[in-house]
Automatic annotation (TrEMBL):
This is AzlD domain-containing protein. The chain crosses the membrane at residues 6-23, 44-64, 76-92, 97-115. Pfam families: AzlD (PF05437). It comes from Aquibium carbonis. Keywords: Membrane, Transmembrane, Transmembrane helix. It comes from the Bacteria.
């Protein structure tokens, strides 16, 4: 069965819903099932955390260096300054994610208004 299998207005929505559910929830259920049996210090879990962290870092780097939409109109230096300030606030603010996000956004928005 493919995306073009049925010619009805509701088919693309159902296809995306089912395909999205199968792609994500299957792995979630397996993670819950096996997660209770894996030690937090095991090599497998360290590898999974490392890969997840690398993927998040790659997405952030992609947003900084190759942005799309309205973010592409901002200067690279401003995007770098906001991310560095947010990371520094995260480290020095007690490793609280919310502090890092708020500071990065404040630096970016403040810099955007100062430049524009």
């Amino acid at each position: 069965m493919s995306f073009d299998a049925i010619d009805a207005w509701w088919w693309p929505f159902l296809f995306i819903l089912v395909a999205g559910w199968l792609a994500t929830d299957t792995w979630r259920y397996l993670g819950v099932y096996f997660g209770g049996r894996i030690s937090e210090d095991s090599d497998v879990l360290v590898l999974v955390r490392s890969v997840a962290t690398a993927l998040v870092a790659a997405v952030i780097a992609n947003l900084i260096f190759f942005p799309g939409g309205a973010l592409a109109e901002s200067p690279l230096a401003l995007r770098l300054a906001a991310s560095i300030a947010g990371f520094a606030a995260y480290i020095f603010g007690g490793r609280r994610v919310l502090v890092g996000i708020v500071v990065a956004e404040a630096v970016f928005v403040g810099g955007w208004f100062a430049l524009g």
